[in-house]
Amino acid sequence: MVDVDVSRRRFLQSGTATLGSLVVAGPLLRLDAGRGPRPDRGFGPIAPIADLTTGLPLLKLPEGFTYQSFGWTGDPMDDGTLTPDRHDGMAVVEVNGRGPGREVVLIRNHERGPSTPGNPLPVVGGGAAPVYDGFQVPGVIDGLGGGTTALTFSGGRFTGSRATLGGTISNCAGGPTPWGSWLTCEEVTIRGTAIGARDHGLVFEVPSPRLGPASAVPIESAGFMSHEAAAVDARTGDLYLTEDNGPLSGFYRMRPSRRPHAPGDLEAGGTLEMLRVVGQDNADLGAATQGQRFEVDWVPIADPMADPEGFESPAPGFPPIQGTGRSGPFLQGQAQGGASMRRGEGCFYRDDVVYLVDTSGGPAGKGTVWALELDRHRRRPGRLIAIYVSPDENTADNPDNITVSPRGGILVCEDGGGRTAADSSRVFGPRLLGINERGASFVFAENNVVLEQALPGKPLVPPGDYRGFEFAGAAFSPVGDELFVNIQTPGVTFAITGPWRRGRL
């Protein structure tokens, strides 16, 4: 058995390391200088770097950084099933051992829909992992394809993977807990109980494999909506949730009925609330400019599982079971003055601050990064600050997933598809962007995946130009020496190492 490095595991679980003070003292205190953000060159210019696994220049990175790819779509996993496609949110949930030989355990989402006949990638795990919903329609749907997988990275190399949850739909960003588990969020609203299936648009907890299997029981108090990301306040256990429903998106907090300490505790329920701007009912946060600050409070959602505004058929032959318009929680919160965003995406907790992303926010519609400063003693309303607003596509093209490094650097994954010139040549692909303490962004990495021929041993990864597909699931190791990240299509995970202390990540 591998010894657990207690100090590193506590660092992972607490989310309150003092190294995060760069971010807290930066964006929350320096944006009122009135001079605007200064340019930031980050780690320097980026250029194509060869992957240590395939030898191909799949990423553009600054000088001195290296990386290896693993967990490609279709790769056999340790449980005998195939690695699913559409890699999305991801986080480190456990660290065992210490030093260069330590083992890092990650859990990764797969944003997949129903599995159709003939698909070589069936329901995640093919029944080898716990399944929430086994709904099938013979000849039409073989199962619900979404779910999660766990990966291990030991001694600086990929060492294994397995399915951990199946029978869900469109598992998107999600988020880690302080007690060694992962919250996987369904970005869909389906009233499946109307046709003998189960409802989808929920949040599930998936423990690190060492802690046991997933219960496959939804956290219904987190609401029935198009979920994106989740972040847990390490001090209180409160759960913060983003909603990805275009301009009808709210931001929510679930306050557990009892303080959670272990996997399964959140399933006991709690109270769902929606964020409201103090003194400004139904505020449109999507219109905010950089540096704007708001005092906020929360309004209660009496029925987290309420129906949305309407339903439509998800496909020919199906009754109207897919939600349309405002979600049930949004309707209830809006009636009490709750605020809206343009498209809620990534969410991350660190040092009494919840960072969240409105992917289509800002005057240019290219994205806003918010910092919600929590009042630890609940003596005053929280404070919401627009710490970064993209001025244009070139600067930041719709940030999505977000993470914060142990050194306090903010990193976001772009979801805008990059930019092509009039002659269809590629100007830049989706990027990983750092955000400094003065509200300026810099490019850290760029998708450069072009497969001119099939990769040996990977029959489910066809040749093609994948440079327009998004990064997702960026996650640093607890000591900050490795960055793990996915490119959703063709479905691949990377481990990046290099001179982190040279820059702001």
List the helices and strands and how they pair.
Elements: H1 6-14, H2 21-25, H3 27-30, E1 46-49, E2 59-62, E3 66-70, E4 87-96, E5 103-110, E6 114-115, E7 143-144, E8 146-154, E9 157-168, E10 175-176, E11 181-185, E12 203-207, E13 227-232, E14 239-243, E15 251-256, E16 270-277, E17 293-301, E18 310-312, E19 322-324, H4 328-334, E20 344-350, E21 353-358, E22 368-373, E23 382-389, E24 399-404, E25 410-414, E26 419-420, E27 426-428, E28 431-435, E29 441-447, E30 450-451, E31 464-465, E32 471-476, E33 483-487, E34 492-497
Antiparallel strand pairs: 1-2, 2-29, 3-34, 4-5, 5-8, 6-7, 8-9, 10-11, 11-12, 13-14, 14-15, 15-16, 16-17, 17-23, 18-19, 20-21, 21-22, 22-23, 24-25, 25-28, 26-27, 28-29, 30-31, 32-33, 33-34
Q: What does this protein look like?
A:
The protein has about 500 residues and is mainly β. The protein has a single domain (about 5-500), classed as TolB, C-terminal domain (Neuraminidase), CATH 2.120.10. Helices cover about 5% and strands about 35% of the residues. The chain is built from four helices and 34 strands. The chain has helices spanning about 5-15, 20-25, 25-30, 330-335, and strands at about 45-50, 60, 65-70, 85-95, 105-110, 115, 145, 145-155, 155-170, 175, 180-185, 205, 225-230, 240-245, 250-255, 270-275, 295-300, 310, 320-325, 345-350, 355-360, 370-375, 380-390, 400-405, 410-415, 420, 425-430, 430-435, 440-445, 450, 465, 470-475, 485, 490-495. It has a nine-stranded antiparallel sheet, covered by helices on one side. A six-stranded antiparallel sheet has the order 1-2-29-28-25-24, with no helix packed on it. Strand 22 and strand 23 form a beta hairpin.
